[in-house]
Amino acid sequence: MDLKSEFGDCRFVIMQGSADRTKDLANFFHNSLELPFGGKEIGKTERYSMYKVGKILCVSHGMGMPSLSIALNEVYKLLHYAGCLDKCTFIRCGTCGGIGVAPGSVVVSTECCDADLNHFYTQSALGKHYQYPAIADPEVVRHLQLLAEENGIPVVSGVTLSADGFYEDQGRTDGFFCEYEEADKFSFLQKLHAAGVCNIEMEALLFLAFARRAGVKAGVVCTVIVDRLKGDQVTSTAEELEEFMCANWKLLSHFVCE
């Protein structure tokens, strides 16, 4: 494959967890922006799926930072050899739990932290540990927030916490194990809220740290589907959840057209 001819015109990389939703997003860009799209995955799909729609590369990364790490390394190498990595802006979109943020809102991450409120990603290699700041590109943050406001999408910008798991790691009480009480959970969530944390998900910390380390622009915009200060269970209907995600995708469609 001639990487430069196939991918050299890429200017945006939009990543999210689900392979199915990644294909849906590619079709959304194709239909709403009238961009060329062959409708087929690029390469193998055992680990992640990738679709090219005009100048946009849509990639699924699975759940959690270990899965994301593999996808990032391979996509960055691909675009480097295609000669366009430094011209691309990377955006992660997805869902999250808000911390005092209502369902249907989008959170634009300014920076990320881990569960210990460290504002850096720790990379372990050969028995050593390296720390990389996880800061979004300020221009991307401002642009996403402005576009959300202009299009009537409730938006908040702030710190995103990336957890290593979904249940205990995020302070939930409905997993198989739980070593704490409901009061402990809310005490922890209030601590996060006081520290400026707006939402919790599982990938943004690595996503932003990787981009900053590589010297490329990146941002994260996630749709809130539950306010964790009010409970752990999603109470919105399937139709409402679909509407929430469509608003996120419409925001991205405006972003890639600017």
Automatic annotation (TrEMBL):
Transmembrane segments: none annotated. One of its GO terms (molecular function) is uridine phosphorylase activity. Residues 12-245 form the Nucleoside phosphorylase domain. It comes from the Eukaryota. GO terms for biological process: nucleotide catabolic process; uridine catabolic process. One of its GO terms (cellular component) is cytosol. InterPro entries: Nucleoside_phosphorylase_d, Nucleoside_phosphorylase_sf, Uridine_phosphorylase_euk. Pfam families: PNP_UDP_1. Belongs to the PNP/UDP phosphorylase family. NCBIfam families: euk_UDPppase. This is Nucleoside phosphorylase domain-containing protein.
